[in-house]
From TrEMBL:
NADH:flavin oxidoreductase/NADH oxidase N-terminal domain mapped to chain residues: 6-331
Keyword tags: Flavoprotein, Oxidoreductase
Name of this chain's protein: 2,4-dienoyl-CoA reductase [NADPH]
MF GO annotations: FMN binding; oxidoreductase activity
Keyword set includes Lyase: no
Keyword flag Oxidoreductase: yes
UniProt superkingdom: Bacteria
Alphabetical list of InterPro entries matching this protein: Aldolase_TIM, NADH_flavin_oxidoreductase, OxRdtase_FMN_N
Entries under CDD domains matching the protein: OYE_like_FMN_family
Length: 365
């Protein structure tokens, strides 16, 4: 019998009740210091009520120079702990496994008074943002490994079952694996290792420190840009991450230069299930489970991806905002057709619900 999305899945001792995962989606509902607010908790209550087996809470920054936008969730200071505890509890109470996504924006970062220059593997500005960038010193890279590990400790203390490392969409970890952004010739470059050492060191360090913590690694399988990251390199990276101690590889794609604008990889111009084939290749390269996101518009497609074993988990973002009954409909508990997401730019950057979703985003009123 082929697998189906309503079968449970075990990950490092945790059982997901089904194969649906709420995608990490930045809300900007944190307060000015990046702390969890009541509005954010209400948002996650709604998101978890969709019936997903796991929720990856939005990108949370691991260091003061790392945010990608204002009011990004804070995962680096002790004052964030009580709010993160409430967030993990809110997700658990509704029967989903909570993960916290750990993030550093690197060259796609937001300048501040204290940090006017962005940091990255090499001093190459993002063509979309065109902000000043300097290359990280090897010692700073080692410090960042420690900061990711400290943030993982904060997530564990807050009651999250695990963390997801944001290695996709052109942010810092991705910048280390793409030849477009990593032109270093030291030990963190791409010449001496098939996959850059930095992401592997982050995973190894977290695994060593927290043997029971679930570790998901979200990667962009390809940059979808000339001379960018290839699928073949990402398969090697995924194998390396598995060896380093990751439990799950979550497949996405692109960086700002291929995700923004009218030709966005997740806009109307690309096929449904746009990263499905890449996920299948990565699934074949590793023996840990693989998740896939990206325009999985209809339940039939989700059923097909799971039945074909292209991926073990389906990650849904905008689909759940547009139609909170999507999963019930996929299960046949609600016979109405799903409300199709329009793939419009209105919620491209920060999720405040779909303005004309099936249920009004009451947390926002
Ligand atoms: C409003 C919004 C915020 C997002 N924030 C994040 C984020 O914090 N971390 C991340 O990895 N991806 C983020 N994404 C990408 C989603 O996780 C997902 O990969 C993307 O929306 C494609 O899936 P979908 O077609 O089901 O929406 C965001 C997407 C949206 C629409
Ligand atoms: S705002 Fe647009 S892209 Fe976002 S969920 Fe609604 S229809 Fe989809």
């Amino acid at each position: 019998m082929p697998p189906n999305p309503f079968e449970p899945l075990s990950l490092r001792g945790y059982t997901l009740k089904n194969r649906f995962v709420a995608a990490p989606m930045a809300t900007q509902y944190a307060d000015k210091r990046g702390l969890v607010t009541e509005t954010m908790l209400a948002y996650y209550r709604h998101l978890t009520l969709t019936g997903v087996g796991m929720v990856v809470a939005e990108a949370a920054v691991i260091s003061p120079e790392g945010p990608g936008w204002s009011r990004e969730l804070n995962a680096y200071s002790e004052e964030a702990l009580p709010g993160l505890r409430q967030l993990a509890e809110t997700i658990r109470e509704r029967g989903a496994i909570p993960l916290l996504q750990l993030h550093h924006a690197g060259r796609q970062g937001l300048p501040s008074r204290e940090h006017t220059q962005m940091v990255a593997p090499s001093p190459i500005p993002c063509p979309v943002l065109d902000r000043p960038v300097r290359a990280l010193h090897p010692q700073e890279i080692k410090d960042l490994v420690r900061k990711f590990t400290d943030s993982a400790r904060l997530a564990q203390d807050a009651g999250f079952a695990g963390v997801e490392l944001h290695g996709a969409h052109g942010y810092l970890l991705h910048q280390f694996v793409s030849p477009l952004t990593n032109q270093r010739d030291d030990e963190y470059g791409l010449q001496r290792h098939a996959a850059s050492r930095f992401p592997l060191e982050v995973v190894q360090s977290i695994r060593r420190a927290f043997p029971d913590l679930l570790i998901s690694y979200r990667l962009s399988a390809r940059d979808y840009l000339p001379r960018g990251l290839t699928l073949q390199a990402s398969c090697l990276l995924a194998k390396g991450l598995e060896g380093a101690g990751a439990d799950l590889i979550s497949v996405s794609g692109g960086m700002y230069a291929s995700l923004h604008g009218p030709e966005s990889l997740v806009g109307p111009a690309t096929p449904y299930g746009v990263f499905r084939d890449d996920a299948r290749d990565i699934r074949e390269a590793v023996s840990i489970p693989v998740a896939v996101a990206g325009k999985i518009q209809f339940p039939t497609l989700a059923h097909e991806i799971i039945a074909n074993r292209d991926a073990h988990l389906i990650v849904l973002g905008r689909m759940l905002l547009r139609d909170p009954a999507w999963i019930q409909k996929a299960q046949g508990l609600d016979r109405n057709p799903v409300r199709e997401c329009l793939l419009c730019p209105r919620c491209r950057f920060h999720s405040r619900g779909c303005p004309d979703g099936a249920s009004r985003p009451t947390w926002n009123e």
